[in-house]
Amino acid sequence: MSGVKVYVPRDATALALGADAVARAIVETAQRRGLDIELVRNGSRGMFWLEPLVEVQSGNAGARVAYGPVGVHDVAGLFEAGAFDASPSAQDGRRAHALHRGAIEESAWFARQQRLCFARVGITDPLSVEDYVAHGGYRGLRNALVTSGAEIVATVTESGLRGRGGAAFPTGIKWKTVLDAPSGIGNRESGIGRAAKYVVCNADEGDSGTFSDRMLMEGDPLCLIEGMTIAGVAVGATQGYIYLRSEYPHAHRALQAAIANAYAAGWLGADVGGSGRRFDLEVRLGAGAYICGEETSLLDSLEGKRGQVRFKPPLPAIKGLFGRPTVINNVISFASVPTILDRGAAFYRDFGVGRSRGTLPIQLAGNLRRTGLVERAFGLTLRELLEDYGGGSWSGRPIRAVQVGGPLGAYLPESRFDTALDYEAFAAVGAMLGHGGIVAFDDTVDMLEQARYAMEFCAAESCGKCTPCRIGSTRGVEVIDRIRAGIERDGNLVVLNDLCETMRYGSLCALGGLTPDPVVSALRHFPEDFEPRVGAA
After folding, report:
1. Phi then psi for 76, rounded to 5 degrees?
2. Residues in domain NADH-ubiquinone oxidoreductase 51kDa subunit iron-sulphur binding (predicted)?
3. How far apart are the first and last CA of the chain?
């Protein structure tokens, strides 16, 4: 047997479920049987309930046949069923196997998606420049290298791309500010020997229920590298940094290897793509502070300082890293750019609704039967995601609430599940899309405890620079505890609402400013959970 490729993900989720052991078992069994297979460690398809997902391809053009979830104990049976046999005669045996899933692209769950950022994830070898180029990679950068910076920025602006990190600020406006900023701005001493402008990727993905950045960096790191390089070409920056949280060791290794391969292939360095333009890229690890997901705290950390929020103005686009004009965007924001430069602003803008253009990688987590990543154009509803993709609750009980946008996102009840995924639609119901993470809870959830957790989280993660966040979150935990104990409940509810108002409008950054959202939404939609507890002290 020859010409058989076997794909086993090296994604962190798959690894946590035993993918390395499965890959070893497949290779060892094939060697014992004298079978010739090529093992490719790819990214995850995002169907976490089927991980480890093993895909088998006969010949370069053949369709992949998937099996999952595969454990080490399943490997021998797969060989017996002919799963790794390229001959047509083994087809009936393959189909009869209990773990046979057919072609993933033809499954209803996958076929309805609109994958732009994640078009290659799970398909290519993440570290192979040759594979990346063969699947459309670097076409966007090639176009950018023969286009002026102003034209690149105009294309990104026309596409309607907004920041995917949570703030949803128009990406093109940010890039134009950096393009137009004088490169000599800032502290002259700090600029000695440094680049005139910078490109920084915020890869400090710390929100609960979010993993799209990690999946992209592990499954298609060259896409991020290409997007950052395009940004550098657009604004005249020659140095880029990826600020990665230390809790992502697999993404770190993938990025380091992909960057080295991009340098070797001439897509990074002094002569990017033979254009004579320079762009260098490094990965820097953060120590795990949630506050460093805020862009100015991140910049302080990159400069070797304690991560604390900076006062604005000046904006980072004017005075950012080392006092220089800096483009700072999220992983998915940068990963969206190659498609825009390859296929045009109009192509990307045609996806979505209203002012929310393009696609959003949505992460389904919590109490759901089918958790994982779904990339769809803006406009579908929460209910479609929870039922059609998520498959309802894992427990079989009714879904009572969902939190969208991380630990500081609002809690939405079932009556809000028909809200469309659209930045403005979510704002209208007092919520935010944020990074696209959705965590589902069934009807056993205690919403007072969830509200308390938000305050406790803020107290633990506050950088301490401003009083409303530093002190307000600690007092918030105390007030909620008094409400739970039935101590002057009505009066403490007034205090809690006043405290939330102070934090919302008095905090220096979004950590303190958004902490009231889960608290106030829990109070508004689930008031019964804030009644005194029997036996509470």
Report:
1. -60, -40
2. 448-493
3. 71
